[in-house]
């Protein structure tokens, strides 16, 4: 059973060895594309291209709940999501990696929960990112000599646009 999933971009399509493509459908619709299941250094991995293999799904149309549900239905317990974004921190340079430890969600018009009742559920997001996965990523990055910032807050807005100057100043 695959325990680790990756939701990533176009630069990651050849990441897996001996990958097979699996089609899934969920109660939230179909994922961005078929799920590639293969191995990296002997570890089973499931990969979904966030914007589809042909890179045709704009950010505001990514079926994020279907992507997550499809991976969960395969037994995935941990998801690594990559992205390429700008930075408001002048100390961060192009090519640096940032391991987010917090987020600010400024999106609207999207349902951001999997809980629909009848019970009331309150989910803590005080520490939204897995400390074990972050520790592994930091260790691997250090082994590879990569420039990594161990903490960072991602401010998420509705795409496909970037933030205005005023929004950037606010953030």
What layout of secondary structure does this protein have?
Elements lengths: L3 E5 L8 E6 L12 E6 L2 E7 L14 H10 L4 E4 L15 E2 L3 E4 L25 H14 L3 E2 L3 E4 L8 H6 L1
Parallel strand pairs: 1-4, 1-5, 6-8, 7-9
Antiparallel strand pairs: 2-3, 3-4
Task: Note down, in words, how this protein is organized.
Belongs to the PNP/MTAP phosphorylase family. One of its GO terms (cellular component) is cytosol. The structure is a single chain. By secondary structure, this protein is an alpha/beta fold. The protein folds into two domains: 1-84, no CATH class; 85-171, no CATH class. Helix content is 18%, strand content 23%. It has three helices and nine strands; from the N terminus they run ββββαβββαββα. It has a five-stranded mixed β-sheet, covered by helices on one side.
